[in-house]
Amino acid sequence: MDREFDVVVMGASGFTGQRVVEHIAQRYGTSIKWAVAGRNKAKLESTLSAVASRLNVPEVANIPVLVADSHNMDQLDAMTSRTRVVASTTGPFLRHGSDLVASCVKNGTSYCDSTGESVWAADMYKKHNEEAKAKGIRIVPMCGLDCVPADLGTYLATKELKKAGVECERVDSYIVKMKGGASGGTFNTMLTFLEEMYNSDKATRAEMGSPYVLVPAAERSEQSQPSLYPVEFSKDINSYTQFFPLSSVNAQTVHWSNYSSNWAYGKQLQYKEKKRAKSYWKATFETLVLATITFLGFLPFTRNILRKVLPQPGTGPSEEEMKNGRFLLKVFAKGPAIDNQEPTTRVVNFQIDEGPGYSGTGRMVAEAALTMALNPDLSTPTGVLPTAVALGDTFVERLNQLDTFSIGPDSA
Q1: Beta-carbon contacts of residue 7 (< 8 Å; ≥ 6 apart)
Q2: For an engineered disulfide with 109, which of 32, 80, 180, 320 has Cβ 3.0 to 4.6 Å away?
Q3: 32-62 pLDDT, tens digit each
Q4: DSSP β-bridge partners for residue 37
Q5: Residue 6: alpha-carbon gap to chain centroid
Q6: Contacts of 80 (CB under 8 A, 6+ apart)
């Protein structure tokens, strides 16, 4: 495909968008053809100037700026028709992402984003999968901390299990290290999701919480899934574990990858993801606090108060906080015992050594886009798909080339 740009970063002046710009500027400079886009030209130009100065890459200040409002189809079509791939950080995607995806599909342009909104991603799948597949393009949502580590970790761990000649029955994942703050955009997306849930009927609410929300209803496994909420002890990591806010959407994405790869992990797969806890009582307290905040965000009156007191969109952790951020997910793929021994297990680690939620997400979104833009011979399926299926080993290899990522089998 002959296009003016390899990648356009949509929403580049936002907090997460700036992290995407920083990664491309620092690692690639002007060696690839890229541009930034959004509705405010002055903010975009200011972002490029600030990044160019901070990283000492003056040529980046002159990267092309495209004006495109996320609800103006003419502007979106003019932008998407000029690039191979769009990388978007313009959330909440339920409110601001649908027209951009429609424009990408219309103009035969691949796409990736930083969303963690599985219900929105399911809607994009229903609306655009067949056309995207027919046009040979990839629409790949959820390319950030939610849900790349869980998605790629499960993909790699189950593959290791198959090498041992064992079919996977269950995957248990544990966030054993998580350090880093949250941005205003993340809080805004969370409250938007709770608002949508409040305004939905009982059946829709149940669908939003289903582990199979991203799998077509007629194709879903009947296998029940373990609860993610109880505080419990895990022998795998010799620690108490607790609920982690991203665990639900990560589980939904893993089941989507399983379905999209023709149930490569096994149709009866069970997936559970928990966060390591320092103690039973601390885990219980934090779980109750999270439940309380969720309840307050669900109700209109208290939700409006939270919107005022929580960090605002466009704000986020400091540079120092992101630099000191750490993340480690351990993925245990488990199959039946061999020769009456313990269940066969293979473990994969997904480690990020700097700012997992934002710097890390920026790098993952950028590398997801470049996996599609710079690999015309990519042999993975097309359509609306999760990262493990759409980008596969090529994406893993690109991430492992970065000094802040380490993904692969546990060597312990």
Answers
A1: 24, 32, 33, 34, 35, 83, 84, 85, 86, 87, 366, 369, 370, 373
A2: 80
A3: 999 999 999 999 999 999 999 999 999 999 9
A4: 10, 66
A5: 21
A6: 8, 86, 100, 103, 104, 106, 107, 109
